[in-house]
Amino acid sequence: MKAIRIHEFGGAEQLKFDEIDKPSPGAGEVLIKMEAAGINFADTMLRQNKYLFTPELPFTMGFEVAGTIEEVGEGVEHLQVGSKVVSMRRGGCYAEYVKADAQTTYAIPNELNSSEATALLVQGLTALGLLETLQEGQNILIHAAAGGVGTLLVQLAKLKGAKVIGTASSEEKLDKVRGLGADVGINYTEDDWTQKVNEATDGNGADIIIEMVGGEMGKRNFECLAIKGEMIVYGAASGEDFQIFALSLLGKMQTVRGYNLNLETPANMQRFTGELMQHLGEGKLQISVMEFPLEQAKEAHEAIEGRKTTGKVVLVP
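The chain above was modelled as a monomer; its predicted structure follows.
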């Protein structure tokens, strides 16, 4: 079967279209015929060996997959051959067939196409996890609001009754963000973006900031974080960390914490999934997807790194 692997770390040119053996599911596993493999900014970080773990090479890329079950392993009873599913893995999803743990594989409605399911049930789960502390009437600043997680964050935050301020790098992307319901759109490439956030919140700053850029932008968030405000960090698209001085948090009783979907509880994952499905069934969510053929994984990575994408980016057979 065909798969996208890296044999050494580096740029997008390291993504190789390889022929490898088709896997077989073991006990407690399923074999999924891939219909959509999700790409996240985290994938580009892992490719450069800048992610949370270092894989053994050669490594088949991809953390998430949607498709149809072709085989089930011993002991799997809640999933059947022919079921449409989505699954999260620690790699291996940029491939025509994916072996996955049945415990992290979830059935999806037949009417939901696989590309949309990948966006909804991975980015969507992340978005709901990030919004757990959001309260009605609060101001929330969402960075990279035109991205895969960002587009869902904007919509879900509005459904929770928040005033939403979204940032993006171009007017075209900001138009998309406003179209999804954001009250204010701000271009973060302009130097006065923190001033505009403060103006949009009547000088109070954002009660919650969803941060995934890092570097200088991450540091400048403190210029527009409210008294008792909370900044939640779930990535670093710039590839750069930023310093937080603990004593500086005292003056405004501010909080900074991280979020990692992989550490979420099974109970919360189930609850989040139910909430997403309810919103989708009621027609309250728009899902934006950009598809690339599997063999164009290099071009897909380059598009993400070049800030040329909006919504969810997926590879398809």
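The helical segments are 41-47, 114-130, 148-159, 171-179, 193-200, 215-220, 266-281, 297-305.
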